[in-house]
Input
Amino acid sequence: MKYATALIAIAGLAAALPQPAENNVVARRPARRNGGRPQHLSSPNMRNTSYPQYSSNWAGSVQIGQGFNKVQGTITVPRVSGDSDSAASAWVGIDGDTCSTAILQTGISFYGDGTFDAWYEWIPDYSHSFSNFAIKVGDKIRMEVDASSKKAGVATLENLTTGKKVTHTFTSTPSTLCETNAEWIVEDFESGGSLVPFADFGTVTFTDASASGSQGTVTPNGGTIIDIKDSSSGEVLTDCKSSASGLTCTYTG
Output
């Protein structure tokens, strides 16, 4: 996302889906700095929502159901720490978990060098940056994806602090949504096929978080909670918890 070069669409799709680190783990997605995406870890059908599941790059909450066509949430932009090339993303999306063929998503990435990136994506296409959308630490950013059909939709980011809003309308899409997953995620994304160093983002909290569609409205509360586990060391790097008011993910690495 932040760099002009992007991963090719096929590579992006492969990276965008869940990839296992161990049994009962969720997936990972690929990179964003180069336009990559995440992927989950293991078979979603093996998960149970009573305990956190683990992924190499997703942390947050996933609701699994039918007919999801709109997901929204608001975060306060965190101050991150770590190496200058470290990074993390926060986003909302439809599909990409039990539906492995598509994801519609939008969000922001924050980097250890103090820069930010606002982006939208319909996998397996790579991510694209919004232009003229200033972001700084402490800004409140509202994120929304709204699918008018399984092949069309709109991604919207609004800086509630500055009043600036950007949107992208998808009219020619590379995949068909299943509308079975709604997500609120903090991600350690990939660049060039490898996960970037994960930035210490402190805490990211999604408020005003909901997903709606043909089956009604849900929030992150009651969804499958996912935390990021380093596949090499086994260290758990996040601690995510949902409540009636939203979802909070804390960096623990």
Remarks:
- The chain has one domain: 9-251.
- The two ends are 24 Å apart (CA to CA).
